[in-house]
Amino acid sequence: MTQTAWVLSLSQFFLSLGFMLFFLALELGLAWILFALRLRARRGGPAVLAYRFWVRVFALSLVMGFAAALPVLLQVGTLWPGLMDRAGAVIGPLAGMTVLTAFFFKSCFLGAMLYGQRRMSHTAHVLVVGMVALGSSLTAWWVMVLLAWLQWPVGASLDDGVWQLSGWWSLSTEGAAPVLFMLFLAGSLLLALTLMLSLTARRTRMRPSDEGDRSVFMLGLWGLPLMIMLQVVSAAQLGRLLLVVQPARLATVVSQWSGGLPDPVLWWSWPARGASEVYSAVILHDWGPWLGIARQGTIQGLEELVGLAPPWGLTFFSARLAVVLSGLLMVFALVALWRGHRLGYEPDGLSRGQRSILRVLLWLTLGLQLVGWGHLLVGNLPYAVQGALTLRDALAPVGEPLLWLVFVLQVLVYGALGFGFRQLLRHASRYGVVPVARHRGHA
Amino acid sequence: MIDSLAGLLGLGAADSAFWMPLALMGVLMVTVVAGVLLDGFDVGVGCLLWVAPTSLRGRMMSLLSPWRDANEYWLLLGLGLFAAAFPGAWSRTLGQLYLPLSLLAIGTLLRSVCFECRLRAPAEQQGAWLFGFALGAVLVAFSHGYMLARVVSAYQDGVGPIGFATLMGACSLATYALLGAAWLIMREAGELRIRAVGWARRTLRWGAVGVMGISVVLDFSNAGVFLKWGDGQHWGAVALVWGLLLACFILAEMLLQRMINHSYRATAVPYGLVLIILILMLGGLAYSFFPYLVLDEVTLWDAAASVATLQLALSATVVALPVAIIFNLRVYWRVLGRSRPPDLPDFSGKW
Fold first, then answer.
1. Which residue intervals of chain B are DSSP H helices?
2. How many CB atoms lie within 10 A of CB A27?
């Protein structure tokens, strides 16, 4: 297996996983916001308009996220067959539960939510929307349990090179899963809220705002700082959990080359051996106790972890970039909230510059999620299952030309779909959504 | 037979390590058959979009609309069940099928996304989404045949097996197009039916090539399978299967010819015949392979997960089954016969 084959396989997998996670997140965030809107719209009112518009964006992102799950599942088999051989007892049931949960909630509630509104009472429809949000969360929960297990394998015992599941309860609660789920939920809401703000800014540039725009605008402006805080707190908590059990990630993030007592953290430096070239003066001392390392004393250095450490540059800089982006996002969100409050939450009054601030919010959030998830996934390399099974061992023997072919095809298709999604959103923000009816059995 | 199988494995027939994999394999087979039959006409109509005139494409897409919600699910459900119950077979099957499965993944993604997006897109963008849907359908149809050919030729590499797989990919494209065309003949009168009869006639023989090719290669490349079909113990059943297949093909050919020349009576029959052909072929494959997942190497008991996991998978299936049955009955209620136009919605003052 060549280095190119390895990088191509990784890129393919991360591309499809990232695409799925993005739309899953958008769907999850929108599901809960729609539930809130629908709850407020029980007796009509401004939230009805907002619900009507955003439920169609939700339907679109749900379609995308749902369809993107299949390539990920298939690639687990085609790219990393060794993974199922050894960790099948954990991955298989979790994948099955994800599919089954999605199927259950989709077939029972989604059709009623999207197409059956006229045929049921308001209360029943509110309940149905709530069940869809619950179903999205449960589906995301199983995905997060699986991803968390790969980062920190608890709840399964390694027996003769093969994992055996020891308990569902410990698998899902003792590891990083709850925190990772919180992180994902906060990120989802963040993504949905910034999309709503940005699209509202765009919509009201073209035509006067309505009650729905105003309620979404207010919800977005207040929700944003809260969600950023939630995400920062859960990211910090996840860091505390994972850095202790992932010595290679710790050494890379801290940039510690030789083992021993923890070095001071360099906030910004260049990939050079040793700490001689430091471009930043901010140095954090005594971070050890935060991770509970002071009691253990020493940590491993990168020199001891040759071949078993993640790519230095990507891991090191993504961690810092995530911090910077979070800070920027918070600043922009507070500025937007301040200006919005001054305007009385009336998006019509936004100036050009303020509208671009709202657009920047969306791009910052996208960047933050990309960098954050990139750090989480890349930092776990070269392991597939932290500390026990490397991805190279699980790799399928596929020729390079074939990998190139599929990779190019995949980039083209995912790029086209992402572009098409954006076009649909732009069109909806300009001319309104296209209503879709579905008549059971009739066409 | 059950007892002798259990005896070979050293297990009792009531042993959960014996019957649970068997039961789950049964559920998996049902999912596969349902996926091929119910999602099949959808794939077929998607392939036919390439040759249909622009004026008919919109109608073909709208005919598919009511079943999309359910059609998307079969593959994912089957894969989820396969992952949960038979993780031991993944590297020996999925790991060998990189190209067809990648095409299948991309094709399925394209189909699901493009169909729904086309419904919600403005008129000037719909053409692009339709192209994506049709492309996805062709990828899926081709990859099914390619994959099946790889499986029956025991994943051999070389020019011969790859060429055979490519041919089978083309034949599977034709078979799906045949299924789609036969469904269209039943669904809709007018120009679409006339054209669909023409499409069905052109694809029928290629479908026959595909069925024959898969059967013959499977029979002659594996001694065990050859013995199963040719040892003369069940010659009645074997003759029945082949006779039925032949009769279905001939009858379909005659009916289509009749539709061109005389009349459009019995428009549902070609679709029924193609369904019988596909069920016979899938049944024959299942019979040939049983109890192996990879011929002569991995049985379904080798590949099965631990009993605890199987228990979980089985109980999840038991919970999901009623939902699935009710949901699918609801959705597929009017999938046969002429298409009925939708009723007007009730505008009684609700928002």
1. 2-9, 16-48, 54-64, 68-71, 73-85, 90-93, 98-120, 123-152, 159-187, 191-221, 223-230, 235-261, 269-289, 300-303, 307-331
2. 27
B101 vs B103: CA distance, rounded Å: 5
Check if B66 contacts A (Cβ < 8 Å).
yes
Please give the distance of CA B49 from its chain centroid, rounded to a whole number: 19
Which of A261-270, B186-195, B226-235, B299-308 is the most confident on average?
B186-195
B126: three-class secondary structure by DSSP: helix
At B188, the amino acid letter reads E
- Fold of the CATH domain B10-323: Formate dehydrogenase/DMSO reductase fold (1.20.1630)
Residue B343: list chain A partners with CB under 8 A: 439, 442
A271 phi and psi, to 5 degrees? Answer: -60, 75
User: What's the helix, strand, coil split of chain A in %, to 5?
Assistant: 75, 5, 20
Residue A89 sits at the chain B interface (C-beta within 8 Å): yes
Instruction: Identify which of A41, A149, A134 has the alpha carbon closest to the alpha carbon of residue A388.
Output: A149
Distance CA A424, CA B130 (A): 15
CA A84 from chain centre, in angstroms, equals 24
| Domain segments of chain A as ranges | 3-158+172-260+299-431, 261-298
Predicted ipTM? Answer: 0.90
A443·B129 Cβ contact <8 A: no
Which tens digits make up the pLDDT trace of A208-220?
888 888 888 889 9
DSSP character string of A161-229: TEEEE--HHHHHHTSSHHHHHHHHHHHHHHHHHHHHHHHHHHHHHHS---HHHHHHHHHHHHHHHHHHH
Within A41-121, residue ranges assigned H as helices are 46-78, 81-105, 111-115
CA A352 – CA A339 distance, rounded (Å) = 13
Sorting pLDDT into bands at 50, 70 and 90, what band is B237?
confident
Query: Which residues, 6 or more positions from B218, have their beta carbon under 8 angstroms from its beta carbon?
Result: B152, B225, B285, B288
What long-range pairs does A33-39 form, CB within 8 A, spacing at least 24? A33/A189, A33/A192, A33/A193, A33/A196, A33/A219, A34/A58, A34/A129, A34/A133, A35/A126, A35/A129, A35/A130, A35/A132, A35/A133, A36/A219, A37/A215, A37/A216, A37/A219, A38/A125, A38/A126, A38/A129, A39/A126
Every domain of chain B and the residues it spans: 10-323
- The DSSP code for A388 is T
Cβ atoms B174, B207 nearer than 8 A = yes
DSSP letter string, B265-330: --TTHHHHHHHHHHHHHHHHHHHHHTTEEETTTEEHHHH---HHHHHHHHHHHHHHHHHHHHHHHH
CA distance B179 to chain A (A): 19
Identify which of A67, A433, A438 has the shortest CB distance to residue B66: A438
Give the pLDDT of residue B299.
84
The answer, for A440 touching chain B at a CB cutoff of 8 Å, is yes
| DSSP conformational letter for A269 | B
For A159, the 3-state DSSP assignment is: strand
